[in-house]
Write a structure and sequence with these properties.
Blueprint (H helix, E strand, L loop, with lengths): L1 H32 L3 E3 L2 E2 L4 H12 L1 H19 L4 H24 L12 H25 L7 H33 L1
Antiparallel strand pairs: 1-2
Helix pairs in contact: 1-2, 1-3, 2-3, 2-4, 2-5, 2-6, 3-4, 4-5, 5-6
Length: 185
């Protein structure tokens, strides 16, 4: 029983950490790359997309739930205000979509089930698929709730490019940092 409680607490902590990281990098992205915004909610460089890939790969479902919680906070507190339907859909699109894409790629054996066996092409494919799916699901959700000034056929492309570029910057940034840590040892 104690082991189950410990695991539950650990997953809860990882979920909350994922949410905090997503929100923190969302704020950092807004601060640094505000001028690269296509329009509200759509950036040409979106660093938190890198956390989508990293967190679902490393943490799985707790990472995805953390991304969803972070997305809800961002939507309800920082962007659109208390629109519960839009906020809910954005959280699901940003949090669960990457996890579902990862699971689909693993099921089709296009992505290794274990982290240490993932090679660069698989990681690139996951990044592209996650970026495309996230952009598409966000745009479909925005169209469905009739978000003002939404043009699904125009806005999906900058969102996709922003997701890919942000994810690649984050992934290569982490790789650079990890490589530097190994050199210093």
């Amino acid at each position: 029983m104690t082991l189950m409680i410990g695991r539950a607490l650990q997953k809860t902590a990882l979920t909350l950490l994922s949410a905090v990281l997503f929100v923190g990098f969302f704020e950092l992205n807004d601060l640094i790359f505000y001028s690269l915004e296509h329009r509200e909610g759509i950036n040409w460089l979106f660093l938190p997309a890198g956390f989508r890939v990293i967190l679902v790969l490393v943490l799985g479902l707790p990472g995805a739930v953390g991304l969803m919680l972070g997305g809800w906070y961002v939507d309800w507190q920082l962007i659109d205000g208390p629109d519960p339907i839009l906020g809910f859909l954005n959280g699901v699109a940003g949090g669960l979509t990457p996890w579902l894409v990862m699971k689909l790629l693993q099921k089709r054996q296009w992505l290794s089930q274990t982290l240490h066996k993932i090679h660069p092409l698989q990681l690139l494919n996951l990044t592209l698929a996650t970026s495309a799916a996230s952009a598409a699901v966000h745009q479909i959700a925005w169209h469905w709730v009739d978000k003002p000034l939404t043009n699904i056929w125009v806005d999906v492309w900058p969102m996709f490019i922003g997701n890919v570029s942000g994810a690649l910057v984050m992934l290569y940034g982490f790789k650079f940092a990890i490589d530097r840590l190994h050199i210093q040892k």
